Amino acid sequence: MKLWRQWRMNVSPTARMLIATVALCGIATIAAVVILLNASLSAIAAKSDEMDGHRSNDTAQAAAQALLTHMTQKTTDNAQWDDAVDELYRDSVDTAWLQRTWGVTALDKRTYDGVFVLDENRRILWGRFRGQAFTGTDARMFGSGFAALVAAHPGQLASGETAVSGFSLTRYGPAVVSISLVRPVEHPLSGAGTMRRYLVMTRHFTPGLVQGLGTAFRLDHLRAAPAADRHIPFLNLTGADGRVVAHLTWKPRLSGALAARAAAPRIQQITWLISVLVLVFVGVSGYALHRLAQSEATAKRFALTDNLSGLPNRRALFEHLQSEGKKHKARMQTVVFIDLDGFKDVNDIYGHNTGDKLIMIVAAALKKYLPEKGMLARMGGDEFALLIAGHDGPAKAQGFAEAALAFVGAPIRIGDRSVQIGASIGIAISTLKACTSHELFRRADLAMYHSKATGKGRITHYDAELDAARQHKQAVEQGIRKGLQNGEFDVVYQPIVDARTQRVTSVEALVRWPGRPEGPLPPDQFIDIAETSGLIHEIGQFVLRKACADLKAVPDLRLSVNISPAQFRDPEFERKVDAVIDETGFPVDRLELEVTEGYLIENPDRAIAAVANLKARGVSFALDDFGTGYSSIGYLRRFNFDRIKIDKSLAGRIDRDPQAAALVAGTVNIAAALKMLVTAEGVETEEHVRLLRLAGCNTLQGYYFSRPKALRDVLAMLEQNGKRSVA
């Protein structure tokens, strides 16, 4: 009885019905055999073989569809990724990032053997195939099936909601080819202009892949052949162009014929033996149906399960939520969205194998904290989500989030090493009557990003103000874009004076936004937005060009211009600076570029090359905001700066903080030993001037001398004070 109950639990109602039908047919067959032994047995054998052929054909189609579905999901998960948008929608492609992210996985035995990035004209910008770099640019290597697939789904490729996949005969043979627009996770692509980037993944029909499908779907001797053999079952794999890419063939089982041949020698004499054989046949058929049902269940679990963590995947979570909505639309639903902080660093430092182990450890820990009736899923990458229904869901979700934050925030042991990461968590609560399932997840995701943006390692609950902040950021970003087109930005200048003579020796160019239709916006309220949106490149070029044009006519003033880390990361940075100097005719020996230390330490090789290239052209470099970071003497020597600018947070406390005074004096001594000049920022009092001059600073800058002004006002002030002295 126990075995019967267990069997009923493991077999679906449809499979049970099929097995019962086969059993009844067997009983009827035994009765008919007594009357027409030979004819009945032959008919049963033929019918069984036909059924087996239909089942195997359906199974082969399911195998092919499962492969397409898997590639579609794989490409969608990789293409809908904010980090990929940040990396690919720029003037040049960071091939090192592409190699680390996708290239290392493009091997025959992985989930894809080829990965390519295409531009808006379907030219290949970068590719990796079977562990080797792909150097061509012609997308025709993917075959006519790929071209027809792209032509048949223009809307789907434009939106990027999901990838499109199909079969195609590529240069390297028959394959599944999948393409998707690279876009953000939770909202359509914006701000990229006409630029488009597409992710293409391929999986060719290698013997290992086909054998694996045969094993998974119980198709004996499954293989992909260039031509069909009419004597054995086959399935045509057709591309979007109507061309047959390959033929899946397999060995038929013919279980009915085998049973008939076994019974034939004595069928006339031993009717009872025929009955036994028929019963055996029924049992074999039932077992085959049972195995088929198991294969179907396995395929469904595979489509809804994350392979690495063993948790349900994004699709499973959304299907569950939509099912909940159909049953209980007014029931409270709570979503907890978790993003691991520092996971990328673990991958970069220790490798993806360690990163995979970390994901498995975190997933196992989160399952321990899972509330009753809650569903935990891995959304992809380093993101997890919890869904729990009911009015007690918010309290349970809060407890789960706090436990997850505590676990992830503590050191995690992976083999013989210990890693330290963290988590940013967002929580959203609503009914599916008040908002859609996608909106509920968007809110949780927005709350999570607010946690990440405000310091990480915290929990944020969604409220309407988060949307207001997001809308404000989008409005400012759009305003910057229009402002650059409409000439709303301007440049002001703050004098820098000689510490001994207090004569103005140079000015620092600073950007302002006075022409904004809604009113001026301070730089600290739009510079960060410009950095994250990529508009800082245009602003930086505008400031450099205008400042060089303005100061060209003032021959005895040097010019200092701030360079953002984003500009410095641009491989074309040196060329763009050269272009501005050539365009304006500004003397290169009067130009000084200021850069903060954070980017230099993160990317020393690229920074050293950029600094060396521009210094070779005659441009000077200053290390800005010194004293707020962690530069060492070794870094100062490697970069060979011309000047150090002591931050106002240090120089401005020299009159009341002995430690600050000692640090300023030490900085001046280090700079002198390295033959670098020193500028102190934040000078606001006469006592600051006296102490900084005594400390040995070469130049001073601050409100004591002048606030940033239009160039004409700076020149008028200098003329009024006589010979450009502000003493």
Describe what this molecule looks like in 3D.
The chain is α/β, with parallel strands linked by helices and 727 residues long. It folds into 4 domains: 2-35 and 254-304, no CATH class; 75-249, Beta-Lactamase (2-Layer Sandwich); 314-462, Alpha-Beta Plaits; 473-720, EAL domain (TIM Barrel), CATH 3.20.20.450. Helices cover 50% and strands 19% of the residues. It contains 27 helices and 24 strands. Strands 17-18-19-20-21-22-23-24 form an 8-stranded mixed beta barrel, surrounded by 5 helices. Strands 3-2-1-6-5-4 form a 6-stranded antiparallel sheet, with helices on both faces. The protein has a 5-stranded mixed sheet with strand order 11-12-10-15-16, sandwiched between helices. Strand 1 (114-118) and strand 2 (124-129) form a beta hairpin. The model has no long low-confidence stretch (mean pLDDT 83).
